[in-house]
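User: quick one, fold this
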Amino acid sequence: MRLLAEEARTRFAHERVARFASVSAAGVPHLVPITFAVLGDRVVFVVDDKPKSTQDLRRLENVAAHQQVCVLVDVYDDDWSRLWWARADGVASISEHDDEAVDALATRYPYYVDRRPSGPVVAIDVSRWSGWAAVDPAAPGDAAGPG
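Assistant:
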């Protein structure tokens, strides 16, 4: 069943990990897992201090080239009546400092409390929330709610 925008946003916000999709200047798709926070109709994530091969990350290069991005969360279960996904489509921007975003991330992820990220923040202004659930979200006893 198709999710209404508010239901998709609510489910999205409850999940802990998402997949961030962007496209390079040459049109090559790129997908990476991210930790994130939802602030109204903005999805934010930060380049943190986890080990990376480089700080010149493809996701940042891609956003500089093409600001249209999408972010996906999903729940898989062997009981397929519990399957669902939610997606945020929007325009991304990069900032060097965004205390509100970093505070929101630290609230969600204890790792960031003592290791406050100092890297660039990507903020996606969501223009469309969408999603799908195997079970009608309005049905009594919905087994497919936020995990």
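User: anything notable?
Assistant: Residues 5-133 form a domain with the Pnp Oxidase; Chain A fold (CATH 2.30.110.10).
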